[in-house]
Design brief:
Number of domains: 4
Strand order of the largest sheet: 1-3-2
Largest sheet: 3 strands, antiparallel
Length: 441
C-alpha cells in the first residue's frame, strides 16, 4: 500500500467501529492539502485489496452511502507488558509520519482472521525493490500539479524506507521539496534544510548519479542564489548522463531565471528530441516562448500539449496567460478555468485577467484582502507581489519583492523575465534587486 493508504487504514482502525465521514478522512490523511474525493476512493480500494483478498468486499471496510466508511473487523490494541503504550506509539502520536503509522500498525493492531499489518525490514523475501517506487515518484512529480507532487513525495519516502541507501530516492525527495515550494504549498525556508540534506546525501551515496547532481543544482539555485554552482551541477548531471531529460528540463528553467531565453530554448528542444511526448517538457517549451514574449508561439506550443493531454494543468495555465496578452480574453478565461487546481490558488490570476480587460475592482479587492492577511500574520508580504505590480503600486510591489528575497520564495527565480512584472521594470530598485540576486539585466 502507498503511504496515504496506510494513513487511511490507520484512521479507520483508530475510530473503529464508528463511521468516519469522507470529509474527516480527507482532513486526517491530507491535513494541509485540498484533494478531490477520488484520492480517498483510491486509498480505500488499495486497503481493501490488501486486506480482503479472497473474501467478500466489505469484510473489513464497509461503505456507508453518502457518509463515509467504517472498519468492521474486531480491533485489539496490544500494550506493553507493563500496560503502558509502547514507546514507538508515543513517538508516532507526536510526529504522525506515515512510517510511524506503519510501525503502529505493526506493533499495536491485531485484526480479525489473523490479518496483520507488518513493516518490511529488508530481510523479508517478499520485499519490493525500491526502484519501482522511485519510478512512480518520478512519474507523479512531472505531472507538475500540487496534489501529484505530494503523492510523489510519499513514493520517494517509501523508497527510502525500502532502501535507505537509494541515492535516487533521496534526490527525489530533494527535488520534490523544491517543487512543493514552487507551488506555494510549503515555505521555501521550511523545505530548504531538508532538500539540502537530501541532495547532499544523494551525492554522497552515489557521486556519479546524474539525478543527485541535478537535485544539488536546484538547491544551490534557491538556497543562496548561487547560480554558478547551480549551473556547474546541471552541467555535471549532463556529463554523467548525456541523455538525461530531467537535467535538461531543470537546466532550461535555470537558464530562464538567468534571462537566457536562447539557452533555455536549446535545452528544451534537446530534451524534446529525447522525449517528444512529455507534457512537462512541452509546457516548459511553451514557457520559454511566454517568457520571451512570443505569446503566439507560446499559445501554439501549449495547444500541442493539450492535444495529447487535454487536462494538463500547466499547459492550460500558460496558454491562458499567453491568450490574455494576445487580447483573446474569453479564451483565456476558459483556459484558466480548466487549470483545475485547488480553490483559491488561481484567484490572483483571475483578478489579473480581469485587470487586463480594464476591470480594476477584483484586483483592488483581492490586494486589500492580502494586506489584511499580511497584517494578521497569515501570509507573507510576497503574496501581494503580482497584484501590487499590476496595479502600479510600486512601493508595495518592492516591499513584496524584498519579502520574497529574504524568504527565498520562488518568485525571485522568475524576476528576470516574467512579463507580468513589466510595470515595475523601469524602477531603479528593480535593477538593484537583480544585482543583489546575482542576475544581470
Amino acid at each position: 500500500m502507498t503511504p496515504k493508504a496506510i494513513d487511511t487504514l490507520f484512521v479507520l482502525v483508530e475510530n473503529a467501529p464508528q463511521v468516519v465521514t469522507k470529509e474527516a478522512l480527507i482532513q486526517a490523511v491530507w491535513p494541509d492539502v485540498n484533494v478531490v474525493e477520488s484520492g480517498l476512493t483510491r486509498n480505500i480500494s488499495s486497503v481493501r485489496k490488501a486486506l480482503e483478498e479472497g473474501q467478500a468486499e466489505g469484510s473489513y471496510i464497509e461503505t456507508i452511502p453518502r457518509r463515509g466508511y467504517r472498519f468492521t473487523a474486531p480491533v485489539i490494541a496490544e500494550l506493553a507488558d507493563d500496560g503502558a503504550v509502547p514507546l514507538i506509539l508515543e513517538s508516532a502520536v507526536r510526529s504522525r509520519p506515515w512510517t510511524a503509522r506503519l510501525a503502529i500498525a505493526a506493533a499495536a493492531l491485531v485484526m480479525a482472521a489473523s490479518v496483520w499489518v507488518v513493516a518490511r525490514n529488508g530481510r523479508d523475501a517478499g520485499r519490493t525493490n525500491a526502484d519501482p517506487l522511485v519510478r512512480i515518484g518520478d512519474h507523479l512529480l512531472y505531472k507538475l500539479t500540487p496534489d501529484q507532487t505530494v503523492r510523489a513525495l510519499e513514493y520517494f519516502e517509501a523508497a527510502i524506507l525500502e532502501n535507505p541507501q537509494s541515492a535516487a530516492a533521496h534526490a527525489g525527495v530533494a527535488i520534490t521539496m523544491m517543487h512543493l515550494a514552487g507551488f506555494g504549498m510549503r515555505r521555501t525556508d521550511e523545505v530548504l534544510p531538508r532538500a539540502d540534506a537530501a541532495a547532499q546525501k544523494a551525492v554522497k551515496l552515489e557521486p556519479k548519479s546524474s539525478t543527485a547532481h541535478y537535485a544539488m543544482g536546484m538547491v544551490h539555485a534557491q538556497k543562496d542564489w548561487n547560480f554558478a554552482a547551480a549551473e556547474a551541477e546541471c552541467r555535471r548531471a549532463l556529463e554523467l548522463d548525456p541523455k538525461s531529460v530531467q537535467s535538461r528540463f531543470g537546466y532550461a528553467r535555470l537558464k530562464l531565471a538567468l534571462g537566457d531565453v536562447a539557452g533555455a530554448r536549446r535545452l528544451a528542444e534537446d530534451a524534446l528530441q529525447l522525449d517528444p511526448a512529455s507534457p512537462a517538457l512541452g509546457v516548459e517549451y511553451c514557457r520559454v516562448f511566454y517568457m520571451g514574449r512570443d505569446f503566439q508561439r507560446a499559445d501554439g506550443e501549449c495547444s500541442k500539449v493539450l492535444d495529447r493531454e487535454p487536462d494538463y494543468a500547466l499547459a492550460h495555465y500558460y496558454r491562458a496567460l499567453s491568450l490574455a496578452y494576445l487580447g483573446k480574453y474569453d479564451d483565456a478565461q476558459k483556459s484558466l478555468q480548466r487549470v483545475n487546481l485547488r480553490p483559491g490558488i488561481l484567484s490572483v490570476d483571475f483578478a489579473w485577467l480581469r485587470l487586463r480587460q480594464g476591470e480594476m475592482e477584483p484586483a483592488v479587492s483581492l490586494l486589500e484582502e492580502r494586506r489584511e492577511l499580511h497584517r494578521n500574520g497569515k501570509v507573507d508580504a510576497s503574496a501581494k507581489l503580482l497584484l501590487a505590480a499590476s496595479l502600479g503600486h510600486s512601493d508595495e510591489a518592492f516591499e513584496a519583492l524584498e519579502a520574497a528575497y529574504h524568504n527565498r520564495t520562488p518568485e525571485i527565480l522568475t524576476l528576470r523575465l516574467e512579463p507580468r512584472l513589466d510595470p515595475i521594470r523601469g524602477d531603479r530598485r528593480y535593477l538593484a534587486l537583480l544585482d543583489r540576486v546575482g542576475v544581470r539585466p
